[in-house]
Every structure is written in C-alpha cells, then in structure tokens.
Amino acid sequence: MPASACAVAAYLLNVPVSIHMDLYSMWEAFGGRQPYHVKYEVGITKDGKMIAAKVDFYNDTGCDKNEAASFQAALQFYNCYDAEAYKITPYVVLTDTPSTTWMRAPGSECGIAMSEIIMDHIASELGLDPFNVRLKNVRTHGSPGHRQLPWDGENFQKLIDKLRVSSNYDERKLRIRKFNEENRWKKCGISFDLMGYVMDSSWCKYNVIVSIYRNDGTVAIAHGGIEVGQGINTKVAQVAAKELGISVDMISVKPTNSLTNPNSAPTGGSTTSDANCWAIAEACKELMSRLNPIKQKLGKGANWIQLVSQAYNDNVDLCARKYFNGNVDVKHHFYVIAGIVSEVEVDVLTGERQVTRVDICEDAGRSISPKIDLCQIEGALVMGLGMYLTEIVKRDPNSGKLLTNGSWEYKPPTALDIPIDFRITLYDNPNNTAGVMRSKAVGEPPLCLSVSVLNALRHAISSARKDAGIEKWFQFDSPATVEQVQQLCHSSIAQFRFA
Length: 499
Hints:
The protein is 35% helix and 20% strand. The protein contains 13 helices and eleven strands. The strands form three sheets. It has a four-stranded mixed β-sheet with strand order 4-9-10-11, sandwiched between helices. It has a four-stranded mixed β-sheet with strand order 7-6-5-8, covered by helices on one side. A three-stranded mixed β-sheet has the order 1-2-3, with helices on one face. The N and C termini lie far apart (62 Å).
C-alpha cells in the first residue's frame, strides 16, 4: 500500500517520494493474521473412533482475496488422524477491513488446531480421556496419509511413548485431577496433543553462489533466501564450513540480490533454509572436486590457504553456483511429526492464567543445526501463545475502525507469558530419508502445537464449570483472554461461601 502510494506520487510529481507512517496508522492500515470461522460435523463410534468428518473453513481475507490460505487449513486438517470419509471445504470471505496477510503457518495453524479441538470434543461427548481418543484415531503404520504420503507410524508411536515418559504425563494427570477436586478457586489443566504436519518443498527454487578468495582463503556466500531471524545465514555457513573443511569464521554471508540470486522463490513455507543449505552443499562439493587434484599434488602438509593459492595459480575456477529445484532434488512431500504436553493454572475468580509447563518432542530428522532448531521451536510456541491467549483484535462495531492499534490495547506475549518450565527435545531420527539433507522443517510446524495450551485451559475451565453445576461442552474462541476465561468459569456470588 505505501509502495503504491509512493509510486503514484513519484510518477505524477516526477521526483523521489517516501512515506513515513506512524505506528498507529500502520496498524490500522494492515490487516494482520487471517481470522477463521469453522463449522464441523463428525461421525463417531461409541469408543471414540472418528469415521467421518465434514468441516468448513471460512477464511477472512479482508477487502481482497489475494492471500487466501484456507486451502492450507483444509490440507493440514487431516493431521495425524485417519477417518473413513472426509469432506473438507475451504471458503474465502471478504469483509470491510484491511487486507489480511500470511503469517507464520498461515492456515496450517487453524487446520491442525481444529483436528485437535475435535478430538477433545469427541472425548467430552463420550466421557472418555482425550489422550486415549487421540491414540484411537492415529493413522496406522503404513497406511497412506494425505496425498498418499507414506505414514511412519512406528516412529510416531515411539515419539509419543518417549514424550509420555519424559513429561511424566500419567502421573501429572492424576495429580491435577486430585488438585482440582480439592480446590475450588484454582484449577489446573493438562493436554497431550499430537501433530502430523504435511511439508511440501516442490515450489522451492533458489540460486546460490559460493566464492573462495585466493589471498586469505576466505569464503563468501550469497543465497536465495532472506534472513528474517530463522538462522538461515548461520545454517548455510555451517554447511559450507563442513563441506569445505574450514572454520565458520572464514565464511561470510552476503546480502541477497537479483544479480547473484535471480528468480528465487519467496522465503517461507519452512523450507527455505534447508533448500539453500542443500544448494550450498552441492556448490561446495563442486569446488572441492576442483581442489582435490591440487590437494593431492601438494600433499597432506598443505593448509587451506596454500591449497587455494595454488589452485588460483593453476587457473582453477574458485567460484561455483548451484540451483535448487524442489521438484527434482529432494523427496519434497513428507510429514513432520511432533507431540506436546501443556499444563496451565487458572485463577477462577479473576481469569488470570499461567502456563506452568510445556514439553515438546519434535522430529527434525537429522537436524542441520540443532541449537537453531530448538530455538525455532521455542519461538514458534511462544508466538502461538500470543495468538491463542493474548493478541485479541477489536474493531468498532459501527465504523470498523481498529481499536487495538497500539501496545496499550494489543498484547503480544511477554517474558511473563513464557512457560515457567519449558522442555524441548528433538526426536532422534538419523535414518530419515525425506527432506533436504535428511533434515525436517522447524519454522512453522511447531507453532501449530500451541493449540495444546488452549485445550489445557479448556480442561481447567471445565473443572470450574463442573463445580458450578455446568458440565456440557462449551464454545471457546481464541484468543482466550483473561475476561473470557473468567466469564466461562461461571462464578457467582452464591458460590462464595465457606465450607
């Protein structure tokens, strides 16, 4: 929008034009993450097996349809579960609001969330344990998943078992049940949620270039991705250092531009880092194939700088380029599997809630950079906490004007919203054959796990409602603000009495 305004003004005035917007104007002009409204019907057996599902996803894209993502919600709804019949319909809804946009895990977070919420709903209707209902519906090993993807049920069951033990889930569930029976105005909730996230890198196309400098042996890299905090520059430098056999200190990553990296795909979809790492590795292998004859000639005593210098003197090209094509270079469709156990505590009188503990186990394949992947999972989970707990968007019902246009009203998560006890484990799966360099994406999938906190909150609120004489399933929209939690607990003056 500002770019278009600048272009029009520059054309009419024939001078350079820049626009500087204050924070409040920017918030009012741009729509943010896309809201969803979902309707569903499911057919189930008495023991909690889902045999059919009809789900409609309504995607609010604001004033235009350019960035609709409801198809992603429909794709990811299948999750790790199986049913005999699905009818998933994505819709796009236009509203008199600014155009909404794609944000981390666009649509995916809604699809995964709805499948997990439906599992809880089934359990509630039948009076069953939600975790057991999930296990009842998990896709069996070897059965084809969505898009006929092979489902590795054995590894998924191992991941679940590992997380169940490491999180002390069964013991904590009993402890929370006892706590809720003994306490009226403080309630706890725990939820064990699962994920089978469909990854697709077939759309990825990236150019990379690797240059070695003859004087000091330093290496410069330019790749087709954009560093936005996901650690792509660190990962490509680590891959190059490994392939070339040198220190990371000797490698610098240069800014991306359309001369060195033309026609690159957008940075997104959780695949950009891995795709560029693959291309960097291939370019480095090409360079090493040129350097190896020189290395053999010089003998084992030659160091890297001597090797490079001699190669230059022998007219060896010290620059290599590689193009990544997601349709050819990797097994581009696969599942990212994960599990999460979330525990919360709720103050029934005020609605205040605290995430007391979160345990996550995610299969990252053979991680390229484990520390970065762990941090990505942490950040994704906390970003999801903001979406599900605090970041409510309010508009004037008459004019549509944005009311949450500053930090006084719009509340992203802060340090006090981070789980008190936060434990993340990468599932050990070195034999993974899918993805780039046998690694699996960690950018967007873990955000989808955040719905577990919402489900844990529901269980805590359900205990309070049961004490208030209300036991039926209830509508629980996100974000679950303090006000909404307090009202859903249905506390009344008549309940304020001494035992």
